[in-house]
Amino acid sequence: MTVHEFKVEMTCGGCASAVERVLGKLGDKVEKVNINLEDRTVSVTSNLSSDELMEQLRKTGKSTTYVGVKK
Length: 71
Description:
Alpha-Beta Plaits; 4-stranded antiparallel sheet; 2 helices; ion transport
């Protein structure tokens, strides 16, 4: 499993919930999601590629950028 980190334009708990909801639709393809609303970062532990995760995160309608693989 790889941990991918993204910056997502989240301003409130509702934004964070939207991120959880769209990533939750991937089911067991996502092992863990860690959302830091203060830093506006989302760490996703998954075997999916960063592109696949980015595509899913964009469904929130929020501006999203890929930071990289978290070590």
